[in-house]
Amino acid sequence: MEPPKKLPLLLLLILSSLTPLATADARAHTISTYCTTTLEHNSTAFVTNFIGEVNRIAEQMQLNGYGLAVLGVSPDMAYGLAQCYGDLSLFDCVLCYTEAHTVLSKCYPSNGGRIYLDGCFMRSDSYNFFDEFTGPHDKAVCGNATTAQDGVRFTTLVKQAVSSAVAAAPLSRGYARDSATAQGESAYVLANCWRTINQSDCAACLSNASKAALGCLPGSEGRALYTGCFLRYSNTDFLNAIPGSGHSKGKIIAIVVAIVSAVALVAVGLAVGNAIRKNRIIQKKRKDVTTMPLMPITYHRFSIHCYN
């Protein structure tokens, strides 16, 4: 039996079913990247550990939107952390993380670095930094220099939404979103702490981050990139819609991946089965040839004449 010729089409249809899951925005564009000034100790160990770190975190990101990894032995140990912001679906989270580790790999031969994207964060270093929430590289990034239509009203709305999000995030697994609208002006805010820091450190990080970001006012866009948290405000609604069930999308993705894997296994099975069948046919033909009765051979005397 030949493998079904419609199998590639079936795979294509299944893969295309992923498209509706990506209707949100992964926000996978880089805001800032920092590479450490210390060079790696052993290039072979560093590359091996970084690849292992990326893969281990990837397995966690597609399930939880967050991942940690620790590999190697001193002085070549690798500590990695990646996290998507709370409004990203798992599908978009994987897209953002892929961009994050691809860009961060360019820090080599530095032994570490961190990258802030508008949808996720990643950091890699040679020491355990997981409980850090403040540091010398904390900063604000003011995006759009233009002011809102009514700078005073917009400033009030931003402060209101930021205050609400900063207060709520430490009590809600480190993530909160908020918005405020009045007389045609709107402000949208996202506040997110890394899951490796505790509630009090999250509150402290966001408190400092909010002060830094508010320094961008009356500009219409402001971000705070901190060691333990991220905060953004804007007059544009950059937030993804709240999904009906965050876990349902993960289940759908898992189901689709399982189906694709199953179809691939079927394809391989059919190919192997077809090869075995052909091999058996060949073996049978060989057996038939060896068991055929020998035909009698008749010898005829003949003469050879040579012509000059």
From TrEMBL:
Residues 27-129, 136-238 form the Gnk2-homologous domain. InterPro entries: Cell2Cell_Antifungal, GNK2, GNK2_sf. GO terms for cellular component: plasma membrane; plasmodesma. Keywords: Cell junction, Disulfide bond, Host-virus interaction, Kinase, Membrane, Phosphoprotein, Receptor, Repeat, Signal, Transferase, Transmembrane, Transmembrane helix. Its main location: other. It is found in: Cell junction, Plasmodesma; Cell membrane. It is a single-pass type I membrane protein. The keyword Repressor does not apply. It holds the Pfam family Stress-antifung. One of its GO terms (molecular function) is kinase activity. It catalyses: L-seryl-[protein] + ATP = O-phospho-L-seryl-[protein] + ADP + H(+); L-threonyl-[protein] + ATP = O-phospho-L-threonyl-[protein] + ADP + H(+). It comes from the Eukaryota. Belongs to the cysteine-rich repeat secretory protein family. Plasmodesmata-located proteins (PDLD) subfamily. This is Cysteine-rich receptor-like protein kinase 2. It comes from Acorus calamus. The lineage of its organism: Eukaryota, Viridiplantae, Streptophyta, Embryophyta, Tracheophyta. The gene is CRK2.
